[in-house]
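Problem: given the chain below (267 residues), write out its structure.
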Amino acid sequence: MKALSKIYTFLVFLFLYAPIIILIIFSFNDTQTFSRTVFSGFTLRWYKQLFEDRLIMEALRNTLVIAVASAIISTIIGTMAAFGINKMKKLPKRFMMTVTNIPMVNPDIVTGVSLMLLFVFAVSLMNMRSLGMATLIIAHVTFCLPYVILSVLPKLRQMDSSLYEAAQDLGCPPAKAFMKVVIPEIMPGIITGMIMAFTLSIDDFVISYFCSGTTQTLPIYIYSMTRKRISPEINALSTVLFAAILILLMIINLRNAKDSKKEGKKR
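Solution.
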């Protein structure tokens, strides 16, 4: 049975990661055409062309600006929301958690269309030009918030509430006690939530597609590339994105493992 389970696990991972491995290998393929079968030789030409492409670099800049802005805003709002939810009584807390989880379980296409309709109405009401960077940041904050809240809440529950009260008893103002006592205790959750928000923002396509207007992000640009003649640059671009997301996930996992060791030593 152990051998069968190992074979099954190997086949599952092979099915999941074989396409990515092939994509990475062919991003170094020295060929003039987009070939998935013939490896002509090793080259970094497609990576060079990728970073020389003005449209791709503009899409990358937009993606990073939106991801950083939405991660920071959602982390600030999500941390404050988690602190407020943690102080609620049982019934209001359950209601707020249900409302918080809606953007996570709601289909992306429903969220994207509803946000697009809201933004179109707001643009026409306020005589704004069109959808763009601002609407994308608001949309990304909307679906990143629940992940930040769910990352911070467990840290708040684990924290000894008497620490905050003791700091106030010793003469520390509430705001200063929050910054000096509460924030350091929940910082691992805050950082994890921020990294998750950043990763989700970079990866999002469906919601961005409906709320982007004339602004292009990398997922939207990749989609537009697949509708035309496919260039080998798309392999290089996909490899760079995969590497960036993989590094962020490794940071999250290493931090979680480190936090688990610390909690084990405390116990």
